[in-house]
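Module 6 notes. Inverse folding takes a fixed backbone as the condition and produces residue identities as the prediction. Think of it as a translation problem where the source language is geometry and the target language is the twenty amino acids. Below is one complete input and output pair. Work through it position by position during the lab.
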């Protein structure tokens, strides 16, 4: 279980809290929706859960323990994959930075081997999001923080990606789906939290 215990965050001691005393839990194999107005700290909470930011108060745990050092079992993905990839790297290096997926994993996310020799600017934003997802879902990944990852995609691409993620959840991946799309969250999540 991925848990936030009284999690708080502010940028400095002299600024207001963006988040204050937030409690949240996400079970393995569960998809939980997180929604709320812009500026409420949804993305900040996602980054705290993934260890990309340090909380001002409270703590994050996985099965009651401090998250391990090294490769994080909690991966965070932003709606714009451009920020998650190095433009100087070819697609093969971007993916294989984390792991070497087999053909079945590539097929789940419709990542073509023909993309491997290209740079990130040589494929579409939707294709790059699939690449970022594939990289994030290494075998060590237990939880995915999905921050509006399909909001910029066409309906067909959204459906394909969420079908693949639901399959992963059925295999034990916990997913926190951050979105303003209430209809999407009602379809995919077992419960929805409003921040």
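Target side of the pair, the amino acids:
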């Amino acid at each position: 279980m991925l848990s936030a215990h009284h999690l708080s965050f502010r940028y400095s001691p002299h600024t207001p809290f963006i988040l204050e005393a937030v409690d949240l839990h996400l079970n393995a194999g569960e998809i939980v929706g997180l929604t709320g107005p812009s500026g409420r700290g949804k993305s900040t909470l996602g980054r705290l859960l993934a260890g990309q930011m340090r909380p001002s108060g409270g703590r994050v745990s996985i099965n009651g323990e401090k998250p391990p050092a090294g490769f994080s079992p909690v991966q965070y993905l932003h709606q714009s994959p451009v920020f998650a990839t190095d433009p100087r790297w070819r697609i093969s290096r971007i993916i294989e930075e984390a792991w070497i997926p087999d053909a079945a994993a590539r097929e789940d996310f419709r990542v073509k081997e023909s993309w491997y020799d290209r740079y990130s600017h040589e494929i579409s934003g939707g294709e790059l999001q699939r690449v970022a997802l594939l990289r994030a879902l290494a075998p060590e990944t237990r939880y995915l923080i999905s921050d509006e990852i399909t909001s910029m995609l066409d309906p067909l691409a959204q459906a394909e990606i969420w079908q693949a993620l639901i399959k992963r959840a059925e295999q034990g991946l916990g997913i926190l789906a951050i979105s303003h799309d209430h209809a999407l969250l009602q379809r995919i999540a077992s419960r929805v939290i409003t921040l």
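Reference fact for the lab report: The beta strands are 2-9, 19-26, 31-35, 57-62, 74-77, 143-147, 174-178, 191-194.
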